[in-house]
Amino acid sequence: MPGISGIDLAIQMRAQYPNCKILLFSGQAANLDLLESARAQGYDFRLLQKPVHPSEFLLEIGQLSTGLLQPLPLVECLVPVPA
């Protein structure tokens, strides 16, 4: 993404929407350093390396969705889209 890394965006989203579930994908090894930096700041994101096998993707989605059967306010994960 131009101007911001996916991990930086995830940090901003987690700050604004703490209950939002975030799963990151990357094909760049440099993102592992950014992920470690985020962890040092107290953020723990799951990063899947591309290409991702469909079974691994489904497993991760299943793990993220655990506990989501309780209703969450939908606004928690809505991100305003600039006009």
Q: What is the end-to-end distance?
A: 18 Å
Report the radius of gyration as a whole number of Å. 14 Å
Major pleated sheet? 2 strands, parallel
Helix count? 3
Question: Percentage of helical residues?
Answer: 40-55%
Mean pLDDT: 77
Strand order of the largest sheet: 1-2
Strand content: 5-15%
Low-pLDDT segments, ≥5 res: 71-76
User: What is the structural class?
Assistant: mainly alpha
Q: What sort of overall outline do the alpha carbons produce when their principal axes are compared?
A: globular
The beta-strand count equals 2
Secondary-structure element pattern, one letter each: HEHEH
Brief digest:
With 83 residues, this protein is mainly alpha-helical. The chain has three helices and two strands. A two-stranded parallel sheet has the order 1-2.
What does this entry look like structurally?
- There is one protein chain.
- The protein has 83 residues and is mainly α.
- The protein contains 3 helices and 2 strands.
- The chain has a two-stranded parallel ribbon with strand order 1-2.
- The chain is globular and about 30 Å long.
- 7% of the residues are buried.
Task: Name the features.
83 residues, mainly alpha
Write the layout of secondary structure elements.
Layout: H1 6-16, E1 23-26, H2 30-40, E2 46-49, H3 54-65
